[in-house]
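Please, structure for the following, as tokens.
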Amino acid sequence: MTQVKFLVTPSNNRTAVWKGELPVNQRPAKRFVHNTTYSETVNGETTLYDVQTITEPNGSVITTLSYKQNGKGKSKSKA
């Protein structure tokens, strides 16, 4: 996969978009959407990202990671 977008707003909201393509023998018959979360810890601070991956029958895969300080993604310090 290739990262095609990374955006950080002045309010520290973050979005990263990755795109790729599946081999023909691994493509779904219909659109598949998978929602999950991803957490990373840097210097004792854990950030929780909302993740959505969309896989199309043509093999296109787009994964979007989003962090929003207003509640959707959460950051908490591990002290």
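The two ends are 35 Å apart (CA to CA). Residues 13 and 68 are 5 Å apart (CA to CA).
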